[in-house]
Amino acid sequence: MEDAEQNKLFVGGISWETTEDILKEHFAKYGTVLGSVIAKDRNTGSPRGFAFVTFSESSAVDRALQDSHQILARTVVI
């Protein structure tokens, strides 16, 4: 298995309504998604507006970086 950090993609500017399942579904076309984690405020538990998606291989990250992305009608930064 490859280094997990090379297989991880930062996704910034996500809507607070975005779920981990929505992220997995969106990025599945680039490769096998092992998981996604939405960063949350420690005190309130509210989403912080960014997430990480982990793929099974780094080539999926490379493919995802080639495109622009809209999730829930919002352009996100990767």
Present the secondary structure layout.
Elements: E1 8-12, H1 20-27, E2 33-40, E3 47-55, H2 58-65, E4 69-71, E5 74-76
Antiparallel strand pairs: 1-3, 2-3, 4-5
Describe the sheet with the most strands: 3 strands, antiparallel
What structural class is derived from the secondary structure elements?
alpha+beta
The rough form would be described as: globular
CATH class: Alpha Beta
Cα separation of the termini: 23 Å
| CATH topology assignment | Alpha-Beta Plaits
As a percent range, the share of helical residues equals 10-25%
Strand order of the largest sheet: 1-3-2
Please state roughly what percent of the residues sit in beta strands, choosing from under 5%, 5-15%, 15-25%, 25-35%, 35-45% or over 45%. 35-45%
Number of domains: 1
Query: So how many helices?
Result: 2
Topology as H/E string? EHEEHEE
What's the name of the CATH homologous superfamily?
A: RRM (RNA recognition motif) domain
Indicate the low-confidence ranges by residue numbers: none
Supply Rg: 12 Å
CATH architecture heading: 2-Layer Sandwich
* Count of individual beta strands: 5
| Overall pLDDT score | 95
GO cellular component, one term: ribonucleoprotein complex
Protein name: Heterogeneous nuclear ribonucleoprotein 1
Keywords: Ribonucleoprotein, RNA-binding
Pfam families: RRM_1
